[in-house]
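Could you please consider the sequence and fold following this short note?
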Amino acid sequence: MGKIAFLFSGQGSQYPGMMKEFKEVFEQSAEVFRTVDAVLGRNISGLCFDGTQEELNLTHNTQPCVLTADVAALSAVEAVGIKPDVVAGFSLGEYAALVAAEVLSFEDAVRLIQIRADAMQDAVPVGQGGMIAVLGKSADEVDALCEETNGFVRGANYNCPGQIVVSGDTPALERLKAIGAERKIKMIPLSSSAPFHSERMKPAAEVLEKEFEKISFSKPVVPVIMNVDASFEQNVDGIKQKLVRQAMAPVLWEKTLLKMLEFGVDTFIEIGPGKTLSGFVKKTCKGAAIYRVESVQTLEEVKQALGAK
């Protein structure tokens, strides 16, 4: 059997009631929810279980809630003895991957992600920027479309073949949509409240850089592939530098998945809410086994498939 990769969900995967089942079935998951409420002094568990979609979609809430959901699901996976050979997380999910690799404690990760969420939202006033998914075009074609707007629009998430998300200022995004409508290019505006993973996030990256100096990072116990360059990083300072850059650089997700294939991965397990990452794997890694863990039932299916205890 080939290697197993754990993939951790990012912003946009949140929904009311996420991971409540794990909290009720696994003490390890319940402990994650108790911890986050104590560390942040906020009722994050209540937001995850009983918050409205609107509340969960506010960046101030989304990032700590999704990180907590990812780690609560990870705790259940670890409890049944399933282990990864390599880990990666999508955008904020990278922090969950670093918890899985024991680079960061959950307490430190959730403190950092709350600071990251607020700094990213503060970097650009609401309404002045956003993100759009462009479908069916190559990276070069998307870059050329961005150029045509004569404004600030950049590739932000290179997700899988035929799906690239761009970030930019609102006027330039409006021009991009007009070009798309004229040429019948499918574009989907995302509910993102800011142009994430672009140079507009530089103020947030600077805030994070200062915060990282106060936090203890350890060498990964499992190989981690980082978003900004789709390469393995073992060095603690290298991880910090790449996390700083991650706030304002594109997420190279398709390359990350291809790197995993090169490493010998044939089984991908998406851990946390939603199934977005599974969709990206399906389009990028033909023939790979793909599983999700976001409920007790899906965990049971993975256990049976992998012969875990």
In short: The chain has 14 helices and eight strands. Residues 59-79 form the longest helix (21 residues). The chain has two domains: 3-123+199-306, 129-189. The mean pLDDT is 95.
